[in-house]
């Protein structure tokens, strides 16, 4: 089977690795002129790591992750609201080590790309049209290049061109807050393997560690959609100047050019993931907010599921609906629970936040661990044992 994949991000590269190992002929088309990934850190929970093992890329990725050892929630004064877990507790419950690791997005994409021959991915190709016939599907690009395949996979993100060509260009759903991200040197007060969220009123800060003595931080602030801050570092220091260190320290030590901003968006879940010989995966199919750290993991799970289905030699008219049936409930649950966590974390009322922090102090050590076990545990028979 010949497969064309649109997009060379985490979803596209993972799918290419999986389908090539299943014997498919794969070509990946990417709009960007070269291999690139804008962003900062990404979490890979045990479900994502097991999916990487399934498609054959797990060992190389594990060499580049920073395993996390502990997680906690803090207030703006630095006081610990709740310790969420020591990693050993999750490892005992799930039977996997490590349970969660952090990696820079660029390093993850670079690692996945190593599993694909250079001539498989073609850069500088912006999709213009998809023409689906009964026995093949043709893609056309803005440079007039055309290609035909048995299957086209849209792995081109939340603003997917493939999705818009199939179903129209409905805008994503705004979560109500914007996010800033950065990577800087690890402060002496943060130990490797540490993850923390600091909760304020209408804003949060997340702090974790990466390999080679680096810290990855993110900050979310309630804001109108499409608010763009030019002097991001100065603006953030004004927003968080009364928070305890290392929050201001992390922002101040990150160069302005290394601070990225994007609004937090997703889509209301639906199961319109395929039409004819075209399939959507990853954020093109089921985008989610980042509050559970599972967006990338879901995309890699999609690739593992495709590998499972392709090795069953199912015809496309059975393979595509089966893929949706295997993946829809899982993706919808992550979407719902991630939105719930984000809404709670962004509460701005003084009374509501006081109650939230009090409840979190009591229930997160147990309930939070159970939620993480649910989301990071076994997610389907297509995963390796």
Describe the 3D structure.
The structure is a single chain. The chain is of the alpha/beta class. The chain has a single domain (2-172, 266-376), classed as 3-Layer(bba) Sandwich (FAD/NAD(P)-binding domain), CATH 3.50.50. It is built from eleven helices and 19 strands. It has a seven-stranded mixed beta sheet. Strands 8-2-1-12-19-18 form a six-stranded mixed beta sheet, with helices on both faces. The radius of gyration is 21 Å and the shape is globular. The chain starts with a strand and ends in a 9-residue tail after the last helix.
Short description:
By secondary structure, the chain is an alpha/beta fold. 36% of the residues lie in helices and 28% in strands. The chain has one domain: FAD/NAD(P)-binding domain (3-Layer(bba) Sandwich).
Major sheet size, sense and barrel closure: 7 strands, mixed
> What fold name stands as the CATH topology?
FAD/NAD(P)-binding domain
So, CATH architecture?
3-Layer(bba) Sandwich
* Quaternary: single chain
Rg measurement, Å:
21 Å
Query: Count the helices. How many?
Result: 11
The H-and-E topology, N to C, reads as EHEEHHEEEHEHEEEEEHEEEEHHEEEHHH
Q: How many independent structural domains?
A: 1
Please give the order of strands in the largest beta sheet.
Answer: 6-5-14-15-16-13-17
Q: Overall mean pLDDT score?
A: 92
Which term fits the overall shape?
globular
Residue stretches low in confidence (pLDDT < 50, at least 5 long) are none
End-to-end separation in angstroms reads 27 Å
Work out the strand percent. 25-35%
CATH homology superfamily name: FAD/NAD(P)-binding domain
Helix content bin: 25-40%
Helix/strand-derived class? Answer: alpha/beta
